[in-house]
Amino acid sequence: MLKLLGLLLIGAGFAFRLNPLFVVVVGGLLTGVLGGLSINEVVAMMGQFFTDNRALLLPVIFMVPIVGLLERHGLQERMAALIRRATAATAGRVAWTYQILRGLTSVFGLSIGNHAAMVRPLIAPLAEGAATAPRAPLSEPQRADIRAHAAAAENVGNFFSDDIVVAVGALLLIKAFFDTAGIAVSLRELQLWSLPTALWVIAVGGWRYRALDARLRRVATALKTKS
Fold first, then answer.
1. Handedness of CA 189, 190, 191, 197 (dihedral sign)
2. How far apart are CA 141 and CA 147, in angstroms?
3. What is the pLDDT of residue 154?
4. Three-state DSSP state, 160
5. Can you tell me the distance from the alpha carbon of 116 to that of 124, in angstroms, rounded to the nearest whole number?
């Protein structure tokens, strides 16, 4: 039970909005020490993980300065200005469209970006721009709400759609887990249940994004009434 204190620490760190990298590293160190490992062993495991997965981690690390440079030269402002020209666009429609697109590409193991490469520099500014097109400037809570939904579009679109095609690899990982647990499940059965789940989250996402647009409209209407 003490080994789970690391997870509790991570949850508390996120709740108090501490630095995520610091919280995760400390949580990992604590979990390893409580699991009977020394500090040197835990650090060695972290280094080995980074080395084994550098093909996945290094592109993300290199993407951060590139995105920062683009943002410094006005990428977000230009994307927001572009979406304002589309009168039918709303924050919810932008996020829902990206979730569907992310889901379709994830089915075939294709990555069109992630939070650092797509959501922060492109999708979130597009959604904010669509929300502010005919209305007053957004408040900080509204911006946070829109950004959270844009981030959720990436997570949900990717996570629930990569278990449909065997070539992606996630399906094989799930099957290996069931095989280790002694549960006989075929790949066809996993695919059969993955497809309706992926379609269901698209429907749920549509409802959530419509609710987002409704909240934004209520605030805009209230502002117009006061003015």
1. positive
2. 10
3. 92
4. coil
5. 11
CA angle 137, 140, 144 (to 5 degrees): 115
Q: Yes or no: say if 164 and 195 are a contact pair by the CB < 8 Å rule.
A: yes
**Which distant-in-sequence residues (6+ apart) come within 8 Å of 63 by Cβ?**
116, 117
Quick one: tokens of 55?
Answer: 């093909």
Q: How far, in Å, CA of 205 to CA of 131, rounded?
A: 18
With the CA atoms of 74, 61, 155 and 120 taken in that order, what torsion angle do they form, in degrees rounded to the nearest 10?
A: -10
C-alpha separations of 48 from 10, 34, 62, 76, 202 in Å: 22, 20, 20, 37, 37
Phi first, then psi: give them for residue 178, nearest 5 degrees. Answer: -65, -35
Q: Angle between the 140-159 and 187-226 helix axes, to the nearest 10 degrees?
A: 170
**Domain positions in the chain:** 90-226
d(CA 81, CA 26): 41
Calpha distance 189→24 (Å, rounded)? 35
Specify whether the CB–CB gap between 126 and 75 falls below 8 A. no
Q: 147-183 pLDDT, tens per residue?
A: 999 999 999 988 888 777 765 667 777 777 788 878 8
pTM of the model: 0.67
Residue 112 dihedral angles phi and psi, to the nearest 5°: -100, 5
Tokens representing residue 110 in the block: 């294709």
Contacts of 188 (CB under 8 A, 6+ apart): none
Q: Tokens 């629930």 identify what position?
A: 160
